[in-house]
Design a protein that fits this description.
Layout: H1 5-8, H2 10-22, E1 29-35, E2 38-44, E3 47-51, E4 56-62, H3 66-74, E5 76-81, H4 87-91, E6 100-102, E7 108-111, E8 114-119, E9 124-127, E10 132-143, E11 147-159
Antiparallel strand pairs: 1-2, 1-5, 3-4, 4-11, 5-10, 6-7, 7-8, 8-9, 10-11
This protein binds flavin mononucleotide.
Length: 176
C-alpha cells in the first residue's frame, strides 16, 4: 500500500516515507575533519561512493554542523570504517568533540577518550581502532537544504576491508 502526501496528509506521508527510507541499508562511519588545529570526528551513515573514475565519495553533512564547517575550510575529510562490534563507539561521536588529547608536539592522539591517529596530507583524525580508512580531498560542496553534500576524491586508503559496522547492528536510525 502506498502513501502519498495528497492522499493521506502530510504527517502520514512523513511517517511512512521515514520508515521506508530507514530501510535503505547503510554503513556507519566516523567522518574526520580538520582546519588548522580544530578537528572533529562525527558519526555518519549518509556516505557512498559516487564515481569510479575519478574515485569520488559523497558524504551528506548537516548544514551548520561543526563537521560541515571544518570540511568547507579544510577542503578534505576522512572516513574511519569501524569493526562490526564497535557500535558503542558511534554513540561517542554524535556531538562535537571537546575532549581532544595531543602529544607534546601537538599531534592529536585521542578524541572523546578514543585513540586517534592523524592521516594523510591534511592530518585528518582517524580512529586507531578503525579497520580501514579513506582520505578524500574535497572537490565539491552543495547546499541541499537540511544537509550539504560534500564530494571528495580519494587520495589515500589504509587498512584492510573487513566486516564493517552498519546501521542494522544498532538500534539507531538516521535519515527518512
Ligand atoms: C546513527 C546516526 C547517523 C548519523 N548520520 C549522520 C550523517 O550521515 N550526516 C550528518 O550530518 N549527521 C549524521 N548524524 C548526526 C551527527 O552524528 C551529529 O550529531 C551532527 O551532525 C552534529 O555534527 P557535528 O559534531 O559535526 O556538529 C548521525 C547520527 C546518528 C546517531
Amino acid at each position: 500500500m502506498s502513501t502519498t502526501g495528497a492522499a493521506t496528509g502530510h504527517d502520514e506521508f512523513e511517517r511512512h516515507s521515514r520508515r521506508v527510507l530507514w530501510a535503505l541499508p547503510t554503513g556507519l562511519y566516523l567522518v574526520g575533519s580538520r582546519f588548522e588545529e580544530a578537528a572533529n570526528l562525527m558519526t555518519a551513515n549518509l556516505v557512498v561512493q559516487v564515481c569510479l573514475q575519478p574515485k569520488l565519495v559523497a558524504v551528506a553533512l548537516e548544514a551548520g554542523s561543526v563537521t560541515a564547517g571544518l570540511v568547507a575550510k579544510g577542503r578534505a575529510f576522512s572516513l574511519s570504517l569501524l569493526a562490526r562490534g564497535d557500535r558503542d563507539v558511534v554513540r561517542r561521536f554524535v556531538k562535537p568533540v571537546v575532549d581532544i588529547g595531543r602529544d607534546p608536539e601537538g599531534v592529536i592522539t585521542s578524541m572523546a577518550g578514543h585513540a586517534v591517529l592523524e592521516a594523510g596530507p591534511h592530518r585528518l583524525p582517524i580512529l586507531t581502532a578503525a579497520t580501514s580508512h579513506v582520505i578524500c580531498a574535497l572537490t565539491e560542496q552543495h547546499a541541499l537544504g537540511s544537509h550539504s553534500l560534500c564530494i571528495g576524491e580519494v587520495v589515500e586508503v589504509g587498512g584492510e576491508p573487513a566486516d564493517v559496522l552498519r546501521m542494522e547492528d544498532t538500534r539507531m536510525h538516521y535519515g527518512g
